[in-house]
EamA family transporter
Amino acid sequence: MQLGIGEVAALVAALVWASSTLLYKRFSHSLSPLELNVNKGMLAAIMMLLAIIVTQDLHAPSAIQSWYWLIASGVIGIAIGDSAYFAALRNIGPARTLIIESFAPAIAGILNIIMLGSYLLWQAWLGIVITIVGVLIALKPKQLLPELERTIYVKGILFALLAAFCQAAGMVMSKGAMNAEQSSSLWAALIRLLSGTFSVAVLVFLLKEHSLIKAVSFHKIEGRGWLLSAIFFGTFIGLWLQLISVKYTDPAIAQTIFATAPLMVMTIGFVRKEPVTANMVLGGLLALLGVGVLLLS
């Protein structure tokens, strides 16, 4: 395998997501996770529409099968997957959640076989395994995690597994749409984003503890400049690059490269002179080796 458009897009997407994660830390979260999901999706969709108009991109999907794949991908990957991810964070915290999320590449590889009948070479699977192990080592907490009540722990684990599954399934479904016809990655990203955002908006509307009006507002949010930057890079550019990567490479390979985003966050932290552990260095090097094996398979 050569380093092609898909692999480069996945690497840049991972870097963009890592940077946007740091940007999100710069503003106080005045919205609930679901409200923030709607806010991000709405603003990113506007950005994508403007990009389509400016670039005069007329390559919208014409096959009904492509629309089915993309809408399902948005509902499962963005609406259900993101909601499950946020629920996992609330129940078991980021460390445990990210560890379970690291298995998304393997899930994507299995779903790719079941849903699309596409198989990877054993060398590629070896690269995926090495990368996952590297990420797990790098994400290992510096100290023992606090014990949780069994009910909360089990619920959090199930949410994290659901998030990993939905994330992988969303990627494979996007690939199914790309296989159906050669449509624009920007249009595919827009359809996927709108379907996912609409589903979350309906949920926010139905749940009394959330406010749809608050979710679609922007001017009252503190630090909205940082939020807008995070949405531009993390959702608009990141999701666009994600669809480009899936279009030109295998979903399991793309998902493996996406999984290195936490390592890039650690690298940025190292540059900013934040503390770095031996596990971070060892895991990062191992993950880098795994990605190298994956790209050379």
